[in-house]
Structure formats: C-alpha cells, structure tokens
Amino acid sequence: MFITFEGIEGSGKTTQIKLLVPVLQAKGYDCVFTREPGATEIGKKIRAILLDASHTAMLPLTELLLYEADRAQHVHEVVKPALAANKVVVVDRFFDATTVYQGYARGFDLKLIEQIHHLVLGNLKPDLTMVLDLPVDLGLKRAWQRINSQSDLSEDRFEKEDVAFHEKVRQGYLALARAELERFRVIDASRDAEAVHRDIVDVVLSLHRQIFK
Own/partner pairs for 176-183, CB < 8 Å, 24+ apart? Predict the structure, then answer.
C-alpha cells in the first residue's frame, strides 16, 4: 500500500506520519517512512538548495526541475523497491505537491507538469493521499513556531512566500481532491493532533481492508 501526505506549511504532515507508522507496525505491517525532497543522498543535496531562503535568485523553472530530479532519484532508490517488497510506503509530500506549488501557485502549465510526472513516475500513483487542510494563517503560525524553536533550521524559503501564494497552494490541493475523490481524503488539520490522528487511522485501515479484502 502506498500512502502520501500533503498539505500547506504547518499542516502537521510529519507529526501525523510519525503517529501513524507505529500503529501500522503494531498491526504487523512492514512500513517505510520517507519524504520529498531529501530521501536519498543526492536528494539531501537537492533539498538543501531548494529550501534555503538565501537562494532568492532561484528561477521557478530551476525549482520545478530540481523537485522532479529529487523525485526521480527517490522513486528509483526508495519507493519502487519498497513497494516491490510488499511494504507499506508512507511519504511526506509527493508529486501532488509539485502540481500545487509549482502549478497552481507558481503558474506552470499543469499539462507540462503532468508530462514531467509521467516521465519520472510512469504509472506509479499512491493508493491514498491524505490532504491535511487548515486555514493558511493558522498553518503559517504553526510553521513559524516550529522554525523559531529550532535555531539551526534554515529551511524556510517557502514559509517566506506571501499569504496569497499559500492560499493558492491550499486551493490547489482542494481542487485536486475534488477531481479525484477515490484517491484523496481531506482531513481537518485545524484540530488537535490526536483528533486528526484518529481520523487518519480510521481512513488508512478502512482502505487497507478494501484493497486486500
């Protein structure tokens, strides 16, 4: 089973994945938790470039191609081997993030992005994509609280985008979810972490029963 988590900055994706994986492991599932960008040695170097706020001269096209380069390496080294070994793969951001951040928010042609995704992924697609949704102002507040609590963390290039950018990202995710109801589940992430976690566990276990019934 292949599960991806998506959402705006501060939506709690990483927190929720860290809560979910032990639950699945306790039920006997062999899980791989990974992320984009930065899941491979090459990807770590790409991540450092992409998320460094000092890289103000980065072109949107450079950004798009770096994300896809990271994804190509990630899929080849981590995702496909894990799925081939019948493991549950849980990813913090995947191709939908590029569609909304570089497509809906940056303005790249969605057909072009889809073509690049096909080149990188072939027919690979998650069984389930969880969109953790909450108002932009709340998400950014949480994101900056996290950043400010970690003085050595410099990965804040996207948090420094204006509110309009983040609203486009949020609306992009919701548009994708409406267009592909079978794959997406939208979760209200404005609530406390435990309430969000319970909903996620219910969705994941229900889907697993459907896939392996």
Answer: 176/96, 176/99, 176/100, 176/131, 177/129, 177/131, 183/125, 183/126, 183/127, 183/128, 183/129
